Amino acid sequence: MPRLLLRLILVWALLVMLYLPLNTSTYAVGDDRIDVILANMTTRQKVGQLFMVSLGGSQLSTAQIEFLQEYQPGAIALFSSNVDGKTPEAITNYINELQFVITEAEGVPLFIAIDHEGGRVQRLLEGFTHFPEPSIIGATADPFIAEAVGQAMGRELSAVGINFNLAPVADLHTREDMLNTSRVLNHRTLSQDPQMVGELSAALIRGMAQQGVIGTLKHFPGHAQTDTDTHRDLATVSLDRETALATNIRAFEVAIHNGAEVVMVGHLYYPAFETEENRPASLSPIMIDLLRHDLGFEGLIVTDALDMGAIRNQFSIAEASVLAFQAGVDMLAMGPNANFSDQKAAMDAVYNAVESGEISLVRLDESVRRILNLKMKYNLLDWQALDSTTTIERMDTAASFQTLVQLFEAGITVVHDENNLLPLSPTDNVAIIYPVGKPLFLETCRQFLPNAIYQSYSWWPYDWEFGATQAAARRADVAIVIAENIGWNTPQGELVAALPLEKVIYVSLWKPYEWEYIQALNPNTLGFIVTYSTSEAAQIALCRVISGQAPMRGRLPMAIQGYEVGSGIQSES
Fold it and tell me: In what helix (H) or strand (E) does residue 457 lie, and over which residues does it extend?
């Protein structure tokens, strides 16, 4: 069929389906619904449910349609190539089309998955809220705030038809991860405290679930203490058993006991547990048994993408798929580097292993039942197309922004305040020195501190700005100096270093570890505040916190020089 004609037929069918419910007459209604579905599925369809596939491009090709209808996968993971440059309305139409192709072939509606962690890992950009780095959630130490963030995330995802978020990251924070931009966990972690990571991860997942989106704990059993990126090679975590159970694995245990429904297993080799050298957890019966029985996890286990270097350096994707399923995994994920041939070969390999008896039908049905039960719980078996003309209304990004302001008000951390100068009053003789590219500092702080001296400076400061900022600081009794990453931005660091630091309360818009840089410049610096982000919500919240309009509540999610995890000055607004 010519591609244009096929697409016209699909568009017509989608318009009809906006007003007609999906025909689910082949499915029973009631407790035996999954039994009926399983009984009517072929072995090929059951095997298809085990796979989370990937498709290149932002429009379905004829080859992709034929692949989806023939192999009927259980899930599709969206990557940048699928959504870059697309409006929320266009993404809604694209997902409607994906679901229609499957259901038209009498397949089971899809999990539509995406990496939506916030911070540096967020595929959806145009028209969507850019959620901040997870460390600000860790700084709140508040599951209720985390749940609200999860609700906001879930609302925007579900508005376009995404029902499966490959987040949150439950790996523990390490100092090296935040300081080294080449490390895979750079700015992606909540905290270094496993109890807090587990509680906040579970809260994020609860919030998403309330909006019909399934959250995923990743990457079990935890990357912490390795500098290897599993996209490139196998990562070895050389913790002894007792330490691993008390730290990396403990975070997952807490989240599981608080209701997590999906765990992604990473390509991580733990010699303290694994008896076979260089066997990644994603292919390891020992590590899956630890997750299932020691941690008591009864939900869905999915692999990290099997086209990553950690796997492909040792196995073909087809071999890894069979090994992972034999190890006890339920769903086998394919990343953007797995082409059609790879994915078909993997699905054929698992199918052939079932047909030959290498994998039993009982084992196959066990995983398919978990997948179908989760789809039924989230009402995916009764999928209906979404009206793309009301996508923006469903997303409600204005509500998301207010949630983020509340998040930052709760998480901005006053680490040090030598003379108890905070919160500031409108009559204080204070200078606010801020980056000119962040005008909300001026607009917002002026509402509460109208008599302050305001002086901006450029990202790469001009010579005259050195004099202007020094003059502003000298005229004030205390200077609030706001900067970003001065340890890396040398000119900006020089501007801050030239200020009378004994008058300065320094605000880091990024890393808490900048405290060490400031201390090296002048150990008599008056104070230190961390916002963990440069976002507009962070700018508004900072002004509210330093002026006493919001309480000081944030706590460090990681230890820094002289301050332990959980440190932070607390006060009422």
Answer: strand 453-457
